[in-house]
Sequence to fold (358 residues):
Amino acid sequence: MSTPIDYLLHLADNAVVLGQRNAEWCGHGPILEEDLALANVSLDLIGQARLLYQRVAELQGGDATEDKLAYFRDAHEFRNYTLLELPHHGPLVGYAAADRDYATTIVRNFLYSALMVLVWDGLQNSSDAGLAAIAAKSIKEASYHLHHARDWLVRMGDGTDESHARVQAAVNHLMPYTEEFWTISPAEGAAVAAHVAVDVWALRPAWDALVNDALAEATLSRPNFHGYVTEGKVGLHSEHLGFLLAEMQSLARAHPDGRW
Amino acid sequence: MTTPALKEWPLWEVFVRSKQGLEHKHCGSLHAADAAQALHMARDVYTRRQEGVSIWVVPSASITASNPDDKGELFDPAADKIYRHPTFYEIPEEVGHM
Fold:
């Protein structure tokens, strides 16, 4: 039985894109201690992506490598959730710049890690032994990421009037993007059928409970959703991913096969 | 919102016990809003290279320190009391490391 490669790429691209996005805070964190904490989260995510890309390269064979997968694919070939490529600020037109907003960073990390603790937990029983091993390592990291993000979510939500307003705005902005978690892509469907992946739909009640519990403790409200569901995981991305990849990939493309 | 917002976060002293070590050792300090956050931050700042298996954090304000100016009267009188070191005893081999 062959592991559906698109599903592994979906997991890997999620990790590398959020890892790269969060790395933008490196050297710019709100305080030194948080700067280090967020860099740790990024390094965990990039480590997960490396293991997953290595597994894909192994399955593809030939001259496939983790670096080729990360650095020499273009935006439409990436399979990450749109949520993870968005900049660290509220909705603006694609080319607009704005100050990074830590509330946006924290809310996104919270929503994603709340999903991933459940996904990695299920993937420990994947029929793909390589993926099961990656899941067993990654669940500890995701648990810490959730702990970290949830802690700040509650502190900011149940904090000052300004911190409350900013974190609520981030929740309102980002929550609609989580609808993408629950629409099953062809790659996910195939992986579930092969017992490689977990059925995310079955995880939804547990995710809702994690999210609602944290929002309540943070005195935040959950916005109602009705509207467009993003489709990053099938390769249809926002305008932001191209800029992110340009920064991430330019060095490897300027110096192919460079070693340092 | 019962607790007032802090303008400055208090300082915490961090103690880490390594895998081999029996006791927690002081390894530095950091700023955090409260004890739970200080523990989190200590993990991220001081145990990134597998330094530890256990962390303590203590509010720096809770530590009463000796005055460096008193160093002479506090510590110098012990300098010539070599007989306080138990080096004049033969330790039987069966006792092993003490």
User: Anything to note?
Assistant: Chain A has a mean pLDDT of 94. Residues 32-60 of chain A form the longest helix (29 residues).
